[in-house]
Structure formats: structure tokens, C-alpha cells
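REVIEWER CHECKLIST
Item 1: Sequence provided? yes
Item 2: Single chain? yes
Item 3: Sequence as submitted:
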Amino acid sequence: MDKVFAIAQNTFKEAIRNRVMYVILVFAILFILTGVVVKDLTIAAHGLVIRAIGLWAINVFGLILALLLGIGLVYTELDKKTIYTIVSKPIDRWQFLLGKYLGLLLTLYLIVVVMSAVFLVEIHLLNRQIQDPHFGLAMLMSLKAIFLGCVELAVVVAFALLFSSFSSPVLSGFMTLMVIVAGRLNEDIERFAQKIIAGFEGGGEVAKQGFLAGMAFLRDPATGATIFDQIKFLFAKGTALVFPNFELFNARTLALHFDTVDVNILKMITVSTSDALIYAVPYTASVLLLAMFLFGRRNFR
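Item 4: Structure as written out by the authors:
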């Protein structure tokens, strides 16, 4: 692991010298601070406005940095020809990739800490004016949302590393962006697949039983489903199963509305930190293992 940490440290040093990162960080901080101005445009709920802007900015700008920095992780080494020196040394390719992953993740988490510090100071100063009775809980909920956003970043960076291990930065960026979009729409895609099944007589219960039951139902001639219906269901269900479900990491809604929504609705929007970690850790590990496998078979000659 010493070799992995050495590569991670070198990746971190390279990343913090990237001027684009600082431009985006400054823009993110300015965007967070706009909450002070925007809140005055509302009659009430000033704390809600600032939390909404701040949490959105931390999440979105974190993803932008993960996308921009992650897609060039491997390509930069290829472009500079330094990869040939690295692979010629007693360093396994999996160590190289894992080090790159950890180095970039450390960089992103440092950026998130900086943005979060600005955000927390901002809402603390606001609370000195408005004296929100739910301020302590709002802070805890906001920290939870930021933490789960960091877990989401770990998954996104793994995909960026996977795509950069075998494709160009442009293609890697496009594919990583598609993963982010599909991950954000995962539950909607799942509901669309269930709606296809539920549209046929007797399909209401089958829609809740999973992929195999759904396909068997659509293939039954008695249902009257066409091959087009089967393709739509296969594509929607396959997309929902393969791509990550980023809604498992979305605690921002809870952080914003925990003190204003009905208890039953609150239960629906509550995100479990343990469930998110149980889902994210093996998923990220699987993506990294696939990246290591593909990178290990790549010919640099």
C-alpha cells in the first residue's frame, strides 16, 4: 500500500496545482454567498433559502470538479508519456489506478470541506439575526447531506476512472455525465418500467416482483404485450439495475424541509446513512475492479 499512497500523494499535488480547480472553487464560494442577497427577496424562510443554495452549490460544483479532473486521470499520464515510466517500475497497474483514485478523492474532499466551511459560517451568521429554533437540527441535517454527497462523489470518481482507463477525455466525460444523469433519474426509470407492466391487465402485482417476473409476464401471449413493450421494459429495467441510484445519497430535501413537512412525508424523504454506505461501498469497489481489469489488459506499446 506504500506505493498506492505515494501515487495518491503525487496525484493530490498535481490536482491542487490545477488552476481550473481554483477558478471553479472561487465561483462556487461566490455562488454560496449569493444566498445572503437572495434571502432578502423572500418574505420569510431565509434559512431555507440559504441552505438550499449552499447545499446545491456544494453538490453540483463537487460533481463538476469530479467530472473535469476525473476524466483526465489516466489520459494525462498517457499524453505526457509518464505512464511508460510508471508501468516499467515494480508497480502493479491496480496500484497505479487505486492511487490515482484515492488522490483525486482526497482533493475533492478537501474542496468540499472548504465550500462547506464557507456555507456553515454563512448560516451561522444568519442565525445570529433570525434566531431559528431549529438551527442545531438544520446544521446536523446539512452536514448529513454534505457527507452523503461525498459518498456520491466516490461513486462518480470511480466511473470517471473506469472510462478514462480505456477512452479519450471527451468520451470519458460524456459517459460519466450520462452515469450522473441516469443515476439521478434512476427511480424515475424504475417507475417507468413498472408502469409498462402495470398497463396490462393483471400487471399491477407483477410490477413489484422484479425483472425476471416482469419479462415472463410480457412474454406471455395472453397479456397482449408486443416486442416493443418488451424492449422498453428491458431497457428501462436494465438501466435502473446497472446504473447507480444516486437518490440514495440525496439528503438535501430532508435538510431543507424537515421542520415543515408532514410526518408521513418526512419518513418517505428520509435517507439512511447506513443503507447508503452499504450500497455505495461494494458498488464503488466493483467499478474500480472493472477499471483495474480493463487497465491491466491495455497495451501501451
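Item 5: Key structural point noted by reviewer: The radius of gyration is 22 Å.
Item 6: Recommendation: ____
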